[in-house]
Amino acid sequence: MKALELYGTLGPSDCDKDTLKAMFRCGMTGLRLNLSHKSLSECSGWLDQLHMASEELHIVPDLLVDLQGPELRIGLLNEPVSLKEGDIIGLSFDNASAFKEISIPVPACTKPYLLPGQKIRLDDGRIVLEVVGLNKARVLIGGTLQSRKSLALDGHSITLPTLTDKDIENISQLSGYRVTGVMLPFVRNAEDLITLKKALLDYGHSHVRIFAKIENQAGVNQLPSLIPHCDHIVIARGDLGNAVSLTKLPAVQKSIARICNRTKTPFMVVTQMLHTMTENPVPTRAEVSDIFNAVLDGASSLMLTGETAVGRYPAEAMKVLSDVSFEALRYKMESKFF
Hints:
This protein has 338 residues and is an alpha/beta fold. The protein contains eleven helices and 16 strands. The chain folds into two domains: 5-71 and 160-335, Phosphoenolpyruvate-binding domains (TIM Barrel); 81-153, M1 Pyruvate Kinase, Domain 3.
């Protein structure tokens, strides 16, 4: 298993020392912390539990922080909102009005694009809205929506700064929390990675690895130019599955893997690896095959997100990820001799 890194995501379900120790014993080598919702300092309690768990096990795990980056997200909700197909909801452009009944706060920069017929995809495309009038949308695919979830507009790419003020603040604090890697979402070009590398150098973090998340068509198109400026490519299938047709997503994943293998660039596969284990103690056959094939394609790391951060079975999910990965590595090794 030394050939493969296995990551969980730190969150409410796995932020205690005992659960983290169980996940490490199941094969986990590191953790991701999503900073789109909280700052490093706000997660200090969780990180204290992580460091206690690793010290008791005498290991030094990777800790990756996932920045906000140039990503569109909704604002704050006072509580999760249940959206049902056919509902008409409001779209607001400031957090003050976001607390009205059934009103979703969206970034002000999206306002010129919210014309009738425009589709809005929320939470990695799990929820889909269609604009039907001034600041109004109809729910096409419903679900429960929580604060700060991702937002994408079909047919549009809105230019945002590479790093937010919040990202810079978090970067300045990396050394105090033993961070070993930084994930930059929605990488569009080499300049995004150069901007991140400069920020890391400015704060004395030259040792921190850079993980470039491929989540849009620009990142796919620019992949060869990104490779010299990062340590790891991340095939982030959530928003990437919004940027390209879901039926084309497997081919895009294979294409990225092929380029990374050809250039000997480590790459990670992430998003819904074991999605059903968020609520269920066993995976589907399709999920097991997905993990197995990702390893056969040459992935150097795999990551669980909601399965461990908010799921009911974080340690069990990590064990499945580890066990299936082991079988895939064994199959690769045996296949070389036959």
